């Protein structure tokens, strides 16, 4: 009896969704093929020295042409869920529903049909950072800063539900609003490249200026309202008949106190997560921004929701999404901030007060590996938001030096194998021991791809893409490990995994 009790409690639910993720701009290529309109990243990447080596995503992984063989890789690895994003301007070249590109509709129909035929469930992100350039042309500011973006996004979302909703059952409105807000309007390293002069004079040329202390909050506000409008459209007109689910995904780390003997630094931990995950989850669950944010952001820079907007936002999710990569140490200042960076998010340091490193550096400068942070953050989300369904929509790592290795060496990506193994273990502990309702886990990424400002120099794939040799694909050992983990956890008690070396699984 004891044994039965143990076995039931320690096996993952059989419908747990194991997946891999991608995004249109990073993998598709075919940038000017069959009627696709330009997006803000097509424009942004053409400015000199915005992208590593001045690379572009014009071809990227040529997923546009090669998706049939990439789907075979998913099948081979036993990955039954695939997260992709729609390119807004492949479907609507100038961003507006008055001008539909039938070739784009055909492409996504073909892709979705091929996935379904292969027994793979598509999870579709409507917006992964590739805003129609046509909007930006109206005025320098008319991107996410324009309140009318809410209507434009809602119309685009409505078009997608109507056109693809009979086949797509999992929708994500927006990927990582924080990255959109801070990357595009704070530090200016992402399209549309706006920032205060102190961050770099390129923003004057690329994005036409900016204000790094105010615009990120305005952009995030409009993005949240766009999300809420799209969810309402889905709920009102489609969900009953199409029977799908909808939400968004939020990037967040978990943090640790910089000085573990200072009580205030534990407070900093809570505030920093409220400023990151809470910024976008509190509005969805409670219909308002975190009190931590309203307390510490000075000068009316944090907008407020009207009662109508608040009511629309509240409950605008079927699940909460999480993109988790890294964590850091944070230190309390207690002083209300006067700009985005000192506002209370206490941007993490990889070292604590005694000089201890939280975890190994990846190739990406912002990514220090800390697997227990995933379990801690999942528990934080469970506690703060009344036990919601959660999907981990991105988790993955860039291997130090990988791009400089010969392909054969890069394929033995032990650094990534350890990363995946330890994050899956922590996630499993959260599900099985802490009863967090995690419904699925998606690796970033199925393929090496265009890593935004880092171009192709940083690789996140479990599949190697050879950019010097006709974009050939080769499966890395981390992919074989993932395949084994999926199989192993389908048949074994999760506790047993802790006694198995990741290397013995490939
Ligand atoms: C995600 N950070 O972005 C994106 O969703 C992907 O498109 C991207 O390729 C992937 O992570 C890897 O970078 C992030 O600074 C970018 O903490 C930066 C951070 C987190 C996520």
Give structural notes.
This protein is an alpha/beta fold and 506 residues long. The chain contains 19 helices and 12 strands. It has helices at 2-9, 24-27, 40-44, 63-77, 88-91, 102-117, 133-138, 149-164, 177-185, 202-206, 215-237, 239-242, 263-286, 291-296, 307-313, 372-384, 407-410, 414-432, 477-491, and strands spanning 17-21, 81-85, 121-127, 170-175, 245-251, 255-257, 320-323, 328-330, 390-394, 438-444, 463-466, 472-475. The strands form 3 sheets. Strands 1-2-3-4-5-7-9-10 form an 8-stranded parallel β-barrel, surrounded by 5 helices. α4 (63-77) packs parallel to α6. The radius of gyration is 22 Å and the shape is globular. It starts with a helix and ends in a 15-residue tail after the last helix. 4-nitrophenyl beta-D-glucopyranoside is lined by residues 23, 26, 175-176, 179, 251, 323, 325, 366, 394, 444, 451, 460.
Q: What proportion strand?
A: 5-15%
Strands, total number: 12
Class based on secondary structure composition and strand pairing: alpha/beta
Strand order of the largest sheet: 1-2-3-4-5-7-9-10
Please, what is the average pLDDT?
Answer: 96
Largest sheet: 8 strands, parallel, barrel
The ligands found in this model are: 4-nitrophenyl beta-D-glucopyranoside
* Radius of gyration over all CA atoms, rounded: 22 Å
**Relative helix content:** 40-55%
Poorly predicted regions are: none
Labels describing this entry:
two-stranded parallel ribbon; binds 4-nitrophenyl beta-D-glucopyranoside; 506 residues; alpha/beta
Summarize the structure.
Helices cover 40% and strands 12% of the residues. It is an alpha/beta fold.
């Amino acid at each position: 009896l004891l044994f039965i009790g143990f076995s039931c409690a320690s096996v993952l639910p059989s419908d747990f969704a194991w997946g891999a993720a991608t995004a249109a701009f990073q993998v598709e290529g075919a940038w000017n093929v069959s009627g696709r309109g330009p997006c803000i990243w097509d424009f942004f990447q053409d400015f000199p020295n915005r992208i590593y080596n001045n690379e572009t995503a014009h071809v990227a992984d040529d997923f546009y042409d090669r998706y049939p063989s990439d789907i075979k890789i998913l099948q081979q690895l036993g990955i039954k869920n695939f997260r992709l994003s729609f390119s807004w301007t492949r479907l609507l070249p100038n961003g507006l529903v008055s001008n539909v590109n039938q070739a784009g509709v055909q492409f996504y129909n073909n892709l979705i049909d091929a996935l379904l035929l292969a027994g793979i469930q598509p999870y579709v992100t409507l917006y992964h950072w590739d805003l129609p350039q046509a909007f930006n042309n109206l005025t320098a500011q008319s991107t996410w800063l324009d309140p009318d973006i809410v209507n434009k996004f809602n119309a685009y979302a409505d078009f997608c539900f109507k056109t693809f909703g009979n086949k797509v059952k999992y929708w994500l409105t927006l990927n990582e609003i924080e990255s959109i807000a801070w990357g595009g309007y704070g530090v200016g390293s992402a399209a549309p490249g706006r920032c205060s002069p102190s961050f770099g004079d390129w923003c004057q040329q690329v994005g036409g200026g900016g204000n790094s202390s105010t615009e990120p909050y305005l952009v995030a506000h409009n993005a949240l309202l766009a999300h809420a409008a799209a969810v309402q459209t889905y709920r009102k007109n489609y969900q009953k008949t199409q029977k799908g689910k909808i939400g968004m995904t939020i990037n967040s780390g978990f943090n640790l106190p910089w000085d573990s003997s200072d009580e205030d630094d534990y407070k900093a931990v809570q505030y920093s997560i409220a400023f990151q995950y809470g910024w976008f989850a509190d509005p969805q669950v409670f219909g308002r921004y975190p009190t931590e944010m309203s307390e510490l952001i000075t000068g009316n820079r944090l907008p407020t929701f009207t009662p109508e907007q608040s009511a629309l936002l509240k409950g605008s999710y079927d699940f909460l999404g999480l993109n988790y990569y890294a964590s850091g140490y944070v230190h309390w200042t207690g002083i209300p901030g006067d700009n985005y960076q000192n506002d209370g998010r206490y941007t993490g340091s990889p070292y604590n007060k005694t000089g201890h490193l939280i975890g190994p550096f990846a190739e990406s400068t912002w990514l220090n590996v800390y697997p227990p942070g995933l379990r801690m953050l999942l528990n934080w989300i469970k506690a703060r938001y009344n036990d919601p369904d959660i999907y981990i929509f991105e988790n993955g790592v860039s291997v130090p030096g990988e791009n400089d290795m010969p392909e054969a060496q890069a394929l033995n990506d032990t650094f990534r194998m350890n990363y995946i193994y330890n994050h899956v273990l922590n996630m499993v502990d959260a599900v099985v021991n802490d009863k967090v309702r995690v419904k699925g886990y998606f690796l970033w990424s199925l393929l090496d791809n265009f890593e935004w400002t880092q171009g192709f120099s940083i690789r996140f794939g479990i599949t190697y893409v050879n950019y010097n040799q006709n974009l050939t694909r080769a499966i890395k050992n981390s992919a074989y490990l993932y395949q084994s983990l999926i199989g192993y956890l389908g048949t074994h008690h999760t506790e047993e995994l802790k006694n198995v070396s990741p290397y013995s699984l490939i």
